[in-house]
Amino acid sequence: MAEKSLTVREIAAEVGGEGEGDLERPIEDVKPIAEAGPRDITFVANQRYEQEFARTLAGCVVIPSKLANGDRRTVIRHANPYLAFAKLVALLRPPAPRPAPGVHPSAVVAPSARLGRDVAIEAGAVVAEGASVGDRATIGALAYVGPGASVGEDARLYPRAVIYHGVSLGKRVIVHSGAVVGSDGFGYASDPTTGRHEKIPQVGTVVVEDDVEIGANTTIDRAVLGATRIGRGTKIDNLVQIAHNVEIGPDSLLVAQCGISGSTRLGRGVIVAAQAGIVGHIDLGDRAIVAASAGVTKDVAAGEAVLGQPAIPIEDGRRAYALIGRLPEIKKAVAALEKRLTKLEEAAATEDAAGKGEESRDRGAM
Amino acid sequence: MAEKSLTVREIAAEVGGEGEGDLERPIEDVKPIAEAGPRDITFVANQRYEQEFARTLAGCVVIPSKLANGDRRTVIRHANPYLAFAKLVALLRPPAPRPAPGVHPSAVVAPSARLGRDVAIEAGAVVAEGASVGDRATIGALAYVGPGASVGEDARLYPRAVIYHGVSLGKRVIVHSGAVVGSDGFGYASDPTTGRHEKIPQVGTVVVEDDVEIGANTTIDRAVLGATRIGRGTKIDNLVQIAHNVEIGPDSLLVAQCGISGSTRLGRGVIVAAQAGIVGHIDLGDRAIVAASAGVTKDVAAGEAVLGQPAIPIEDGRRAYALIGRLPEIKKAVAALEKRLTKLEEAAATEDAAGKGEESRDRGAM
Amino acid sequence: MAEKSLTVREIAAEVGGEGEGDLERPIEDVKPIAEAGPRDITFVANQRYEQEFARTLAGCVVIPSKLANGDRRTVIRHANPYLAFAKLVALLRPPAPRPAPGVHPSAVVAPSARLGRDVAIEAGAVVAEGASVGDRATIGALAYVGPGASVGEDARLYPRAVIYHGVSLGKRVIVHSGAVVGSDGFGYASDPTTGRHEKIPQVGTVVVEDDVEIGANTTIDRAVLGATRIGRGTKIDNLVQIAHNVEIGPDSLLVAQCGISGSTRLGRGVIVAAQAGIVGHIDLGDRAIVAASAGVTKDVAAGEAVLGQPAIPIEDGRRAYALIGRLPEIKKAVAALEKRLTKLEEAAATEDAAGKGEESRDRGAM
């Protein structure tokens, strides 16, 4: 995969790190730490991979600024090795294949659709009436852009992404395969006498702001009225569910298989870990953190972290949930105490009775 | 978005509510409560939005029959404001775009497929051999109807829905993008000596009855034999998993990311909330309710509501699960009791020993 | 659906079981136990279905070797009735429709793609530049095989499966509709000052070994570097999430809606039940078992089974988690003990005070 060769010194300069060791060593590729050889660079993001660091055959390793380097390997120290890695890949690897501009003859673009300059529409894609696709955007194979939907400049829809009618995607938005943006919210008015559910038309839309990334097979429902909104720079993993009228602030992270119920609002920089669920109609403040698998049932304040089902503040929660495993022991302890206490009580009662006896005798003696 | 103008009086009559205030006021659109202006109508479904009701600039608000209206706003009182809202949208908003009848030239319809009257087959859709599509049904762009599958009258498949071979969809069924109906059930016979898993052919099918709605990227597996069955009027949200041979009664609601394991049966009007999971081979009675994130491991009686992992009756469950957060405190209380009890026991033992001493002295004195 | 007729004797020989009763009885089809008639065979996999066994009208029933047959029905005894059933279906049912070899005229196959012999490419499928499809493989309708991806011999992609660029699928791999293999891992370097998330290019790939089955709408992310790897014979259910750089050994089972976080490694024959979640960077040993809905936060040893959130060994876990429901009772018991203990302490204190009083009097008397 080697495209070119750079010295450790050149790489250190490019990624903004501090080289140490053989700065003239030529590096050709970036590889996983276990596979890297003398002409490869790799990285250690944290302490956890210390052993791998000791064993790697890599020609150079990007390490955290303060990691010990007892073996005096050739390294580049960096405040954020993971970020440095992002730059290494851009330096040393060919970019992922990106389709050349043009409309594939098998694609179906409605006459009223507006395509910007240098747009790429891959095989079998469908762009419906009144839709617009911004300059340099890519509509992947078999993807669908519905009537009146708009796709921003430099956006990329991977094969088979679906954008429903009227949905708006900002600039540089990435939508992975199978994601569905703009499906109907789950809204029914139930008739208490017949038990039947009448569909509430979902006539709102979805607004996805600039620089959002949406994972594979994730679903984002359109609002019943108004808009479901995903803030600038927010990143959404695979198989996430975002219900109607949810509003998510900028720079939030939603990890795989989490779900946000209707009308809930997330602030800026919120993190929702994998498989967590959040009920509807609540607020999560800026930089709130929801741990994996948590079930959030009420507001979370800005900066607060919660854990568990039901979710509670994380410091308490870690201790509390870890104690579930000790419940049999706690229950046993309570039963043992009960027994010992009963014994003491009986002893006391006997003594007391004896005492009372004495006392009555005493009284009798009075 | 205004299509026409109606008076509050006319709207009240149409939605079956009771107008109050300026009944001749003209209304042009329905909007979210925070965005509505003097020519818009909006609604308040419950108490929770009382403050928004107080602040809205809407020309008219649909409110629950008994909500106080201290500010004497122009309102329409209605037993079910959410249901009224469904009617408002139909009155005031243009319907969502629905493709015109006809087969798009890029669609592929097998010669042996049967298409009803006024069917719309959008761009890139595939209708396989022996499939049938009922009158006025829509097969969305890039959707797939497998060999021998049947789609009922007035059904709507959104773009990229997939119906496997032989599956049957009733009338007015709605299938959102990315949903897969009829994929193989997860069935293997495992060889205990080699550890290998031999695939059990899944030769059954799926029957989806009339008026069912299936959310985006939901999966419903075909039966190993016989049929997986979704009862009339049941509504299924996004990313739901329904395993082989599951049977769901009519008018049930399955909320996002819940999962029903193989051969489990749900009655009529059952509600399974978001992210709940239900094991295989059990029964949930009519109108049973499973709370969000619950893990149901045994039968649930008709009308019963359960919560938690493992799921227990909801009244007990709410109290019980809330106590997890207090486990550290409970454990501490037990430890403190233990300590106090030990102290008492020691005191008692000393006293007892003293008593015994006295007694023996007494005896010695005999 | 009857294709032919076989006697009970012939069927017993074919499936390797022991016939009992009317061995010359003709059998034409295999049906669910509740629907089977005198010319059908059915099966009972376990004790649980004893009642159905007693009531069935089936001409023959495959039963576990040691099940009682008090009614002297015509049966075939078999060590693994479910496995026998797999063979019955192959014997008595026509195989599921499989497209005839050939490239549908509406499919788009890039000039540089390599197709093996007897390959079937269905309507609307897209095979990109440099991709290869092995002999007798099927690419379903509207499925996508990305640039440079390879599909092994006899593999089957169901309609609308997506294989990203460079991904490799082994022989006989089955990919159901909507599954996405090779989407970008969820990797960002976050800038602590701006709060923005910079995308880490995901330049690795996914390797899916022979005989793997991947369920509908499941997502498997490509590695950041190197490969996400699914071992030979592993079976993955619907809506499963497998993150970047995960490695799964052979013959494992991943049930619906479970999720495996980045860089976690599963051994051979591991079972992850429905909706379970596993954190990143940990190891699950061979034949480890993760119960449904469990949240695994640390390594699981070979052969160990875990349950709960957080997950703990299953024997402890079952008892422990069942006690959550009894927490109100435990808390009450602790409060009652507290009260009783206080009373005893007070009594002891009084007595002690009395005793001390006596003692001091005694001393005073010295």
Per-chain topology:
3 copies of one chain form a homotrimer.
Chain A lengths: L5 E2 H8 L2 E3 L5 E2 L1 E2 L9 E4 L6 H6 L4 E5 L10 E4 L2 H12 L9 E2 L4 E2 L4 E2 L4 E2 L4 E2 L4 E2 L4 E2 L4 E2 L4 E2 L4 E2 L4 E2 L4 E2 L4 E2 L4 E4 L4 E3 L6 E3 L5 E4 L4 E2 L4 E3 L5 E4 L4 E2 L4 E2 L4 E2 L4 E2 L4 E2 L4 E2 L4 E2 L4 E2 L4 E2 L4 E2 L4 E2 L8 E3 L4 E2 H9 L4 H39 L1
Parallel strand pairs in A: 4-5, 5-6, 6-7, 8-11, 9-12, 10-13, 11-14, 12-15, 13-16, 14-17, 15-18, 16-19, 17-20, 18-21, 19-24, 20-25, 21-26, 24-27, 25-28, 26-29, 27-30, 28-31, 29-32, 30-33, 31-34, 32-35, 33-36, 34-37, 35-38, 37-39
Antiparallel strand pairs in A: 1-3, 2-7, 22-23, 39-40
What attributes does this structure have?
twelve-stranded mixed β-sheet; disordered C terminus; 20% helix; alpha/beta; homotrimer; ten-stranded parallel β-sheet
Q: Could you estimate the helical fraction of the residues of chain A in percent? A: 10-25%
Flag low-confidence runs of chain A: 359-366
Biggest interface: chains and residue counts? B-C, 75 and 72 residues
> Biggest β-sheet of chain A, characterized?
12 strands, mixed
Strand order of the largest sheet of chain A: 8-11-14-17-20-25-28-31-34-37-39-40
Distance between the termini of chain A: 108 Å
Structural class of chain A: alpha/beta
Oligomerization category of the chains in this entry: homotrimer
What's the Cα radius of gyration of chain A? 31 Å
Which of globular, elongated, flat, extended, rod-shaped describes the shape of chain A? flat
Mean pLDDT of chain A: 92
What does this protein look like?
The structure is a homotrimer of 366-residue chains. By secondary structure, the first copy, chain A, is of the alpha/beta class. Chain A is 20% helix and 27% strand. The first copy, chain A, has a twelve-stranded mixed β-sheet with strand order 8-11-14-17-20-25-28-31-34-37-39-40, with helices on one face. In chain A, a hairpin with a 6-residue loop joins strand 22 and strand 23. The first copy, chain A, starts with 5 loop residues before the first strand and ends with a helix. The C terminus of chain A is likely disordered. The interface between B and C is large, with 75 and 72 residues.
